Amino acid sequence: MITTKVTRKKSGIIEWKSDLVKNKWLYILFLPALVWYILFAYWPMFGLVVAFEKYNVVKGIMGSKWVGLQNFKDIFSDIYFTQLLKNTFLLSLNSLIFGFPIPIVLALCFNEVRHMMFKKVAQTISYLPYFISTVIVCGLAITFLSPSTGIVNAIIGKFGFESTYFLQEPKYFRTIYVIVGVWQTMGFSAILYIAALAGISPELYEAAKIDGANRWKQLCYITFPSLIPTITIMLILSLGNMLNADFEKIILLYNPTIYETADVLNTYVYRKGLLDANYSYATAIGLFQGVVGFVLVLGANWLSKKANGTSLW
């Protein structure tokens, strides 16, 4: 048995070396990406040690006092933590509920368009907002919602209603955040589903036509079911970001008057870490977000694998 294991190990090494020589240019091409991930994704993870210390900039990571789980105890006893967690979860949940299906619907609509020129123009227009800076997108939102010069309040005024400063009212922030996010990303997000639709065999549609299936039945029984694996994978990945609301968009749109609904874990980390220089506390919150996201991805992946056999691994 030992001899067999040694033989298999040697055989595996020989195969690996053979593959390395055969595909050496592909490995060389992959090398810069590997180096980038090591330097900027995996090596910085060593800094998570700060979450268990009372970090001192002068003493550094190795010289700072070890406090164990004290930073996490402080987080869970923080009077703002429950509200921050609630705001983060609700913003992410609303974005998932309203933002996740729209790219799918958009891709299905594009797939049904037969006029190629119109289809290309419409797709291009839907992609454009994604390539606009978030600063500009939020600036447009602020301008449109302005109580004095905004087009939204101008329309409201035409119907005899008073102007509203939407970005000063906590109850409107979640709606504004979701609408801005959907408008900016729906076209680009639809690309993946359009690519998946392009991979559906035309023979399936031809067979369905022969059986008398109309366009609606083809959509229900061929097109949409073919998207299920892609939708499942994207949903699993989206669940991993449930505690990571779009920091840049929020910090450009919010202000102290709407902290009640707009203040989230990421913005709190920014204030605690950069403005108050409480690096250990901010790192602990970030680690908490990462662990929760990891657990959500694991759980969603397990459920998906049990339900329909589709999973990330």
Automatic annotation (TrEMBL):
Keyword Metal-binding: no
UniProt keywords, alphabetically: Cell membrane, Membrane, Transmembrane, Transmembrane helix, Transport
Pfam families (alphabetical): BPD_transp_1
PROSITE patterns, A to Z: ABC_TM1
Membrane topology of this protein: Multi-pass membrane protein
Top-level division of the source organism's lineage: Bacteria
Transmembrane segments: 25-45, 89-110, 130-156, 176-198, 219-239, 279-303
Subcellular location, principal: membrane
Location of this chain's protein in the cell: Cell membrane
InterPro entries found in the cross-reference section: MetI-like, MetI-like_sf, UgpAE/MalFG_permease
Family of this protein: Belongs to the binding-protein-dependent transport system permease family.
Protein name per UniProt: Sugar ABC transporter permease
Lineage start: Bacteria, Bacillati, Bacillota, Bacilli, Bacillales
